[in-house]
Design a protein that fits this description.
With about 180 residues, this protein is mostly helical. It folds into 2 domains: about 5-130, no CATH class; about 135-175, no CATH class. Helices cover about 55% and strands about 0% of the residues. The chain is built from 9 helices and no strands. It has helices spanning about 5-10, 30-40, 50-65, 75-80, 90-100, 115-125, 130, 135-150, 155-170. The two termini are about 30 Å apart.
């Protein structure tokens, strides 16, 4: 079984450094082992242990990136993969504890409400299956790169952020956190 400690060691770390979860670059095998461990333990008291929440969030972020192929973003997508009844509150609790372990902030909307699921989705990055299609998930990064390259060497990070913000506004809000 793979643990958060193993993931840290694979990245030459002894503790999380606050990087986005996708930056830990877990392998497909590690993703599958994380899922197996979560699937085995989700119905037991181990869900209250820190390693479980840390494993859940890095697996969830990666699971969305690798497997989401469209539709609405819901906890059901994660809990179905773990063969567990959907429990939004458990999802929020695990997200809060797990993101804290990895030293990652929880995104908030304009009303200052915490966006647990959207944070996990954004932490994984754009979904592979949606990028592989000719969709806005593919068009937006290409448009950003085209505009950045078209301007030659971008003179400031502010201009790059403005270009990214302009094109990124057409993506679901989960990716603007």
């Amino acid at each position: 079984m793979i643990t958060p400690k193993n993931i840290l060691e694979q990245n030459d770390l002894t503790e999380p450094d606050g990087r986005p979860l996708h930056a830990y670059r877990i392998s497909e095998i590690d993703h599958d082992f994380l899922q197996l461990g979560l699937l085995t333990d989700i119905g037991f008291a181990s869900i209250n242990l820190p390693w479980f929440a840390a494993s859940f969030v890095i697996w969830a972020a990666e699971h969305f990136r690798r497997n989401f192929d469209g539709g609405s973003f819901q906890w059901e997508f994660l809990f179905d993969a773990l063969e567990s009844p959907v429990d939004d509150q458990l999802g929020r609790d695990l997200a809060q504890k797990g993101l804290k372990y990895w030293k990652r902030p929880i995104a908030r909307n304009d009303g200052n409400h915490r966006l647990f699921l959207q944070t996990l989705i954004a932490e994984g990055g754009l979904p592979n299956k949606l990028i592989s299609r000719n969709s806005k998930y593919r068009a937006v990064p290409l448009a950003i790169l085209r505009d950045l390259e078209g301007d030659g060497a971008v003179q400031s990070i502010e201009i790059a952020e403005e270009i990214a913000g302009f094109h990124g506004s057409s993506l679901p809000t989960a990716f603007s956190v």
